[in-house]
Amino acid sequence: MKYLSRAFWLLAGGTFLFPLYWMIAMSLKSKSEAYDNPFGVPRSWDWQNFSEALSKYPFFSYLENSLIYTLGTIALTLATGSMLAYCLSRMKWRFNAAALFYVSMGLIVPIEVVVIPLFQLIKLLHLKNSYLGLILPYSGFAMASCVLMLYAFLRSLPKELEEAACMDGANVYQTFFKIILPIVMPALVTQCVLLFMRIWNEFPLAFIIAAKDRFRPLTVGLLNFFVNVGVSDWGMIGAAMLLSSLPVIVVYLAGNEKIEQALTAGAILK
Amino acid sequence: MNKYFSTKMSIFVFAAPALLLFTVFCVYPLLPEIWMSLHKHDGFRSLGFVGLDNYADAFNNSSFWTAHRNTYLIVGISVLLGLPLSMALALFMDVQPPRLRRFFKSSAMFPAILSVTVVSQIWVAFYEPNWGLFNAILKSIGLSSWTHSWLTERRTVMPSIGLVFLWQYIGLNAMLFYTGIKTIPKMYYEAALIDGAKFVQVCMRITIPLLQDVIKYVLILSTLGSMAFYSHVRVMTAGGPGDVSRTVIYQMYYTAFDTSEFGKGTAIAVIFILECLLISFLIQRFVAKEKLEF
């Protein structure tokens, strides 16, 4: 019974990892082997798929775009979101409760349902085919969860910190950037991880807004590549998939614990 | 200190940028959405006010209903099948030896961090009718008659896509539940075990009731997440065959961007926003109303 249950857990865990194995194996198989032996271990290692994929698939351009969208959104959301959260948790403002409620409404509406008016708005602002065309809406939609989480965190900090800073003659900006932000760093890191996961893999909005190839992130660029090569050359498709997944796999292996904490933080904080 | 810190100026500097971003890109689009849904609109300009015609059109279109059936099938799969399975995984994970648990924890989250495009394309290969994994397994155990062209047959396409979604997020949800389980004080279990309670009883009487906040959170997250189901369909079948695997969001995209009927597309969106609001209201109202303290 004990062994049976262990076998079950290994098998269940293996199910989740199987696609990773399959991607790696596929990327090393020649065109003909991909059909004869689609799920086994590659008989001979064929690195050609990678060079071929890189020549037909502008991986580095997509990678750069994904990085710009993701880092841009993280920077903008954390900078503005943490300031709003601080304002709502500490400053004396008549509309504190109202503003908090207003921002939290953002949790209910999924970004997909406003894609059409967003598309119009981005065209109107002449942001189509620019990085800001995605960064700004991503930030707007990430604001709700970011502000709510940082708000909960900031409220638990003792007020004495600011009082001491105030005595020393620091103004509100110095206090916030030099004293408060370093203290809430763990929460900011958690938000960083959550935003990274969310924006790096975002598909529906990028599919519409980043219409020019030059501005496509990896998720959309990869689909475009699949459509172009068709389903004939699975070795090359495997190589392209593996290349595109490497950044997240590396991030995941490096920060496994952090990511786990971040992804589960929301559930407990509620 | 407050007088010194909370000047009109500092409140404005701290609050305005975020509120502006949120208002312009998250809230404001709802207004043109409603306005467009009342007009005939080709994406560039309005071609005249048509009242509620776009809504009537949506309701009279059979694709709209197919899309609704598909979307709620996915919601059903992920809530009625996915959440109990995730919960079971989390409960059993808690009683496994640490090394096995660590292996399982890190592998279970793995599909959730991969991009939708990669995950969907991998499963396209698994469902491939000639050499794909599922048909290969069925053939090798002598069940050739059970093989299907999974993604192009009417009956199998939606459940097949649903399985991918289930697989991708079940581990993440299990982790969310598991983290919740870890916050329950151990003494409750010890007390129950001294009284001679069985594992199942402990789960049903202690763990699950004390987890209700986490359950509610995961329920809202996965309900709204599966309502917006779109990307997997785009990559795996592009809504096909015909309109058989379109979801509501897919139907909205299709109507607006593929047929240039932006007015009709936004009408679908407005109807769907109301559905999302109604469902989150129902969950807030009826699930986990009493707060348990521990």
Uncertain regions spanning at least 5 consecutive residues of chain A: none
Low-confidence stretches of chain B: none
The helix fraction of chain A, in percent, is over 70%
N- and C-termini, Cα separation of chain A: 38 Å
Give the H and E element order of chain A.
HHHHHHHHHHHHHH
In CATH terms, what is the architecture of the largest domain in chain B?
A: Orthogonal Bundle
Helicity range of chain B: over 70%
Strand line-up across the major sheet of chain B: 1-2
Fourth-tier CATH superfamily name of the domain at 65-215 and 257-269 in chain A: MetI-like
Query: Which oligomeric state applies?
Result: heterodimer
> What is the chain-wise order of helices and strands of chain B?
HHHEEHHHHHHHHHHHHH
Rg of chain B over CA atoms, rounded to whole Å, is 24 Å
User: What does the main sheet of chain A amount to?
Assistant: none
Which SSEs are present, and which pair or pack?
The complex is a heterodimer of chains A (270) and B (294).
Chain A: H1 2-27, H2 31-36, H3 48-56, H4 59-90, H5 96-104, H6 115-124, H7 132-155, H8 160-167, H9 172-183, H10 185-200, H11 204-209, H12 218-229, H13 234-254, H14 256-269
Helix pairs in contact in A: 1-13, 3-13, 4-7, 4-10, 7-10, 8-9, 10-14, 12-13
Chain B: H1 2-5, H2 8-27, H3 30-37, E1 39-41, E2 46-49, H4 53-60, H5 62-93, H6 98-108, H7 110-113, H8 116-127, H9 133-140, H10 154-182, H11 186-194, H12 199-210, H13 212-227, H14 231-236, H15 248-258, H16 262-286
Antiparallel strand pairs in B: 1-2
Helix pairs in contact in B: 3-16, 4-16, 5-10, 5-13, 5-15, 13-16, 15-16
Would you kindly provide a brief summary of this structure?
The complex is a heterodimer of chains A (270) and B (294). Chain A has 270 residues and is an all-alpha fold.
How would you portray this structure in words?
The complex is a heterodimer of chains A (270) and B (294). Chain A is mainly α and 270 residues long. Chain A has a domain of 164 residues: MetI-like fold (Orthogonal Bundle). Helix content of chain A is 76%, strand content 0%. Chain A has 14 helices and no strands. In chain A, α4 runs parallel beside α7 and α8 packs across α9. The mean pLDDT of chain A is 85. Chain B is mainly alpha-helical. Chain B folds into two domains: 72 residues, no CATH class; 174 residues, MetI-like (MetI-like fold), CATH 1.10.3720. Helices cover 73% and strands 2% of the residues of chain B. Chain B has 16 helices and two strands. In chain B, strands 1-2 form a two-stranded antiparallel sheet. In chain B, α4 crosses α16. The longest helix of chain B is centred in the N-terminal third of the chain and has 32 residues. Chain B starts with a helix and ends in an 8-residue tail after the last helix. The mean pLDDT of chain B is 86.
